[in-house]
Design goal:
Layout (H helix, E strand, L loop, with lengths): L3 E5 L7 H18 L3 E5 L1 H4 L11 H14 L8 E4 L5 H10 L4 H5 L2 H7 L7 H15 L5 E4 L4 H18 L7 E4 L31 H10 L19 H9 L2 H12 L5 H27 L2 H30 L5
Parallel strand pairs: 1-2, 2-3, 4-5
Family: Belongs to the class-I aminoacyl-tRNA synthetase family.
GO biological process, one term: tryptophanyl-tRNA aminoacylation
GO molecular function: ATP binding; tryptophan-tRNA ligase activity
Length: 332
């Protein structure tokens, strides 16, 4: 049976982009693949983002990301779910892969160039990010990786690293394939500036566990069609992020009504946002209620993560034993 692997960063509060882009997919794949579904909170990757990494908050955000995944329906007894830093084999395999990966290939990564261009001082870890990602995946010999389209280049590098290791040391790793969530949109930030991202701060995100009144305040202030200056001006839903959110949260009759009425100025932006908030409330309320229940028993969440790490290491340890033998490390 195929083995699925995916990781999610704890660089900020879980938001609707995480939910629609990854977390719902984790639940459905978990039902399909069971314990061959391996997911982790990639706290080591979080260290590569100086703007988002805060030592005082890393443990809290890691815990909250696990809590949010369980609140949306992921059952840790049915899948393997753990925290990346709790399985040290990730770092060990990453170091071996580092020595097989030319710097030039890493410097050509689009995400590296984009992020490095925003920094005054570029940490070496940012360059090595896709190597650690390759180790995350190949450590479990996963062949199926649910990712966003922005990770395609990293998956291609993972496949190349697998080929290079196999050629150098003998057949060991499969070449994983990316699986895209076709239902997920490239969800725009609520501030209207590009993709919703934790690294941009909370002004860009609609938090999955954020109080609904705070969500409404963000939606109420969110930009709409810039050409629609007055209530009587017809709008264009195709350029409005609120309409993108309707596609996520509203039922089909509401989506169709907004599409028609906005274009003929039959509905104003505030009323459109109120309709959206109704769908947001229906979707997020049960998740938040479940999260509040889970938060009353933090030790249960930590126990689930400890069990997940134990299960992950049971898979990772023999893979690393095989790798060490093939690389030629001295046995004791």
């Amino acid at each position: 049976m195929s083995r699925v692997f995916s990781g999610i960063q704890p660089t900020g509060q879980p938001h609707i982009g995480n939910y629609f882009g990854a977390m719902r997919n984790y639940v459905s794949l978990g039902e399909q693949y069971g314990k061959n579904s391996i997911y982790c909170v990639v706290d080591l990757h979080a260290l590569t983002n100086p703007a988002a990494f805060d030592p005082r908050l890393l443990a809290q955000r890691t815990f909250e990301m696990a809590l949010a995944n369980f609140a949306v329906g992921l059952d840790p007894s049915k899948v393997v779910f753990f925290v990346q830093s709790h399985v040290p084999e990730h770092q060990e395999l990453s170091w071996i892969f580092t020595n097989l990966t030319p710097v030039g290939e890493l410097e050509r990564m689009t995400q590296y160039k984009d992020k490095a261009g925003q920094l005054e001082s570029v940490p070496a870890g940012l360059l090595m990010y896709p190597v650690l990602m390759a180790a995350d995946i190949l450590l479990y010999k996963a062949d199926t990786v649910p990712v966003g389209e922005d990770q395609t280049q990293h998956i291609e590098l993972t496949r190349e690293i697998a080929r290079r290791f196999n050629h150098t040391f003998g057949e060991t790793f499969p070449e994983p394939k990316a699986v895209y969530n076709k239902d997920a949109l490239r969800i725009p930030g609520v501030d209207g500036h590009g993709k919703m991202s934790k690294s941009k701060g909370e002004n860009s995100t609609l938090g999955l566990l954020e109080p609904l009144d705070a969500v409404w305040q963000k939606l109420r202030a969110a930009p709409t069609d810039p050409a629609r200056v007055r209530r009587t001006d017809p709008g264009n839903p195709d350029v409005c992020l609120i309409f993108d959110y309707h596609k996520l949260f509203s039922d089909l009759p509401i989506i169709e009504m907004v599409n028609v009425e906005c274009r003929r100025a039959g509905i104003g932006c505030v009323d459109c946002k109120k309709k959206l908030m109704e769908g947001v409330t229906v979707a997020l309320s049960p998740i938040q209620e479940r999260a509040a229940e889970l938060a009353q028993h933090p030790d249960d969440i930590r126990d689930a993560l400890a069990q997940g790490a134990k299960e992950a290491r049971a898979i990772a340890a023999p893979v690393m034993a095989e790798v060490r033998e093939k690389v030629g490390f001295l046995k004791l």
